[in-house]
Design brief:
two-stranded parallel sheet; 83% helix; mainly alpha
Length: 503
């Protein structure tokens, strides 16, 4: 990546509008997500919650093989087929293809549950219950596949308001329904799975009929041209997704192997704790960035796309650096306020996890260049390599340091992923890195961190919701106040874009 000492001040068109549209759809899901953790860590034991995490992790892996690899082709070619007015054939062919693949994946998954044999450790749930949950997970995989497809199309078509609305309905509805099912129908973690199936499936059915009506989807015959593009471009991304899965989720199974399901539950609670604030900001920015970058590349060429990536990296640093600092500082407060007593020790892994999530988000901007240049094999090699490294680090560190070792492995693996991607981009797609923004964000975050530490030590040492909110508000005002005094250019450009309504 090239150094840009002058910093970047031009914000791509439409950024403010999309950010404002995506914000409600990220804030409510993030809030519901953390509320879910607070509720579920009180309703279930660490072992039961850990079992739910293992099932969801298996569903996510199956999703990689069912649709997620095809999703890369959707967002890469959607704009091109839209310009050519061929979305009917493009989306219809992909819909049919995904349905056929799901039938195959679901059949194989069910057969696996028939022959799967697990000997539970002391204090853990029995084998039959785990198999029962896995089979519910197959149904969840089906509706999740359809939901992911329609949400992706909304995203690449920049229908940010509807995307945000559905995201909010999904999480709020799933949470309330899960609580209802738990108390009145089934008092187990299957209540969470059934609630997700109901709301995710409902959104999919509503929107797929809208797609049929709007674009007149042509399901048969399948387009050989579209299938060729999907397989050629999307196929190698199976390696990308498996690498990503090993980076972000395989650690749950390694913790289960070396420790137990209870440790999985505690680790996941800490992971959710670390990702809470980051999820809101990171989600909004990445949802806004990718469609704009792709459209810029298709319409204006590589140079403008590289500049757009640089601008988005600057915005990312501006908001994520202080968020990581704040989460590390306030992790214990949040854990003691939100989590059940058996899960509170998980705050100790938050610094490692939050740092890893920071580098995960940064890698999303840098690896988009592989997609634009249509080099999925290179990206697959990168992700598989770092995923393998993560597994090796987990194997080395979990026996010695437990879940803290797994968290450290996650941090180191994502850091290496960013460093390698940056080096590759120097030759393939030179993206100017906004170093000045990084320095300004670090200086402002350090001042904020030190002030809050002093305030905690001498004035606000207790743990309560009001004290936590006061710390957050003080940190936000102090951080952006320092940025303003530093005359940070990316920050001032965002203010100007909002003030002038640059869309």
């Amino acid at each position: 990546m090239k150094t840009n000492s002058a910093n970047l001040s031009i914000i791509p068109a439409g950024v403010i509008k999309d950010i404002l549209h995506y914000t409600p759809g990220q804030i409510l899901p993030a809030l519901c997500s953390i509320i879910s953790v607070a509720v579920f860590t009180r309703l279930f034991s660490p072992a039961e919650y850990g079992l739910y995490v293992l099932v969801i992790t298996a569903v996510l892996l199956a999703g990689n093989l069912t649709f997620d690899w095809i999703a890369f082709a959707v967002w890469r070619y959607f704009e091109r087929y839209k310009i050519e007015q061929k979305l009917s054939v493009f989306l219809g062919t992909i819909s049919t293809f995904v349905f056929l693949i799901f039938i195959i994946t679901a059949s194989i998954s069910y057969i696996i549950t028939i022959f799967l044999k697990i000997t539970p450790k002391a204090g853990q749930v029995d084998h039959g219950y785990f198999i029962f949950l896995l089979r519910i997970g197959i149904l969840l995989l089906g509706v999740q596949t359809g939901y992911t497809f329609v949400m992706l199309v909304l995203r690449v078509n920049r229908q940010s308001f509807k995307y945000g609305l559905y995201s909010s309905i999904k999480v709020a509805g799933s949470l309330t329904t899960a609580i209802f099912i738990f108390y009145f129908i089934a008092r187990g973690v299957e209540s969470i799975l059934w609630a997700a199936i109901i709301f995710i499936g409902g959104i999919f059915m509503v929107e797929i009929f809208q797609f049929i009506k709007k674009w007149h989807l042509q399901f048969f015959p399948l387009s050989g041209e579209v299938l060729k593009k999907v397989v050629r471009f999307g196929g190698p991304h199976i390696g990308v997704l498996i690498g990503t899965w090993t980076l972000s989720l395989a650690d749950r199974y390694l913790i289960e192997y070396f420790m137990d399901t209870r440790a999985v539950g505690i680790y996941n609670a800490g992971y959710q704790l670390a990702s809470f604030g980051l999820q809101i900001i990171y989600g909004i920015l990445i949802l806004t960035a990718v469609p704009i970058i792709v459209q810029t590349y298709e319409k204006n060429g590589p140079a403008r796309a590289a500049h757009a990536i640089s601008s988005f990296v600057g915005i990312y640093l501006l908001f994520l650096v202080p968020a990581v600092a704040g989460i590390i500082l306030l992790a214990k407060d949040v854990a003691y306020i939100l989590l059940g007593e058996s899960f509170r020790s998980s705050f100790e892994i938050v610094p490692w996890i939050s740092g890893g999530i920071f580098f995960l988000g940064l890698s999303q901007y840098l690896t988009v260049t592989f997609q634009l240049k249509e080099k999925p094999y290179s990206l697959a090699a990168l992700m598989l390599g770092t995923g393998f490294l993560n597994i090796m680090l987990n194997i080395l560190l979990i026996p010695r340091w437990g879940i803290a070792g797994s968290a450290a492995a996650t941090f180191l693996s994502y850091l290496l992923c960013v460093l390698i991607t940056g080096l590759v981009n120097i030759k393939m797609f030179p993206v100017r890195f906004p170093w000045v923004t990084l320095v300004n964000a670090l200086v402002s975050s350090l001042i904020m961190y030190v002030f809050l530490r002093i305030m905690t030590a001498y004035w606000l040492g207790g743990i309560s919701p009001l004290v936590l909110l006061w710390k957050i508000a003080t940190g936000v005002v102090l951080y952006f106040g320092v940025l303003y005094l530093l005359r940070e250019k990316t920050f001032r450009s965002l203010l100007a874009a909002r003030r002038n309504k640059v869309e």
